[in-house]
Amino acid sequence: MASENRFRRLRATFRNSLVWAVAWGTFGTAIATVMRLIDKIPFGYAVLDGIGMGVRIGAMGAIAGAAFFAFISVAYRGKRLSEISWLRFGIGASIVVGLFVPALLQTLNLLSGELVPWHLLSDDLVLSAVFGGITAAGTMLLAQRDEAAHPVTVQELLDRMERQTLDAGATPSYRKAERTRSAEQP
């Protein structure tokens, strides 16, 4: 059972990182392209450079998404989605991610032998805080909207997940077998 939980958490972390990577990559591509166009770079080159920056920003978004997922899995353990304010969630993400990204960049620079002046990381702090807040608030709004449209109890969700696993040819888990035995006994 513990390995199933770890696999589910790992899969959820990967999915969250993927969502953050795509969102940050999209935001980064758009902003970098506009900045290049403002610098009067021809459109084709501006878009190409914007895509390159978007890929790099998306990679940082994946790392930030995994770090934020680790934070929220501890901070919001046991809470239902409906109990979480999307606005506070987004503000919390802005703070956590806005501090995490520059600290990570500074740590990586320090490991390579140099310490970068903090004022050079100020734009990273601002952009990561904005991107993190928007991404976290948006994903929370979507998750809450989905939960409201498809209300389900935890037990129903577990039963659904188990049925999907059984349909895929897996053997029943210990919990399912125990529930079946307890239902059969008078």
Q: Which spans have pLDDT < 50 for at least 5 consecutive residues?
A: none
Average pLDDT figure: 85
* Proportion of strand residues: under 5%
Structural class: mainly alpha
Rg, rounded, reads 21 Å
Distance between the termini: 28 Å
Shape: globular
The amount of helix comes to over 70%
Provide a count of the helices: 6
- Count of discrete domains: 2
Order of helices and strands: HHHHHH
For the biggest sheet, the summary is: none
Tally of extended strands?
0
Tell me what the structure shows.
- This protein has 186 residues and is mainly α.
- It has 2 domains: 2-151, no CATH class; 152-186, no CATH class.
- 80% of the residues lie in helices and 0% in strands.
- It is built from 6 helices and no strands.
- It has helices at 2-38, 43-75, 86-111, 122-149, 154-167, 174-184.
- Helix 1 (2-38) packs antiparallel against helix 2, helix 1 crosses helix 4 and helix 3 runs antiparallel to helix 4 (122-149).
- The radius of gyration is 21 Å and the shape is globular.
- The model has no long low-confidence stretch (mean pLDDT 85).
Short description:
The chain contains 6 helices and no strands. By secondary structure, the protein is mainly α. It has 2 domains: 2-151, no CATH class; 152-186, no CATH class.
Feature tags:
80% helix, 186 residues, mainly alpha, 2 domains, globular
Write the layout of secondary structure elements.
Elements (H helix, E strand, L loop, with lengths): L1 H37 L4 H33 L10 H26 L10 H28 L4 H14 L6 H11 L2
Helix pairs in contact: 1-2, 1-4, 2-3, 3-4
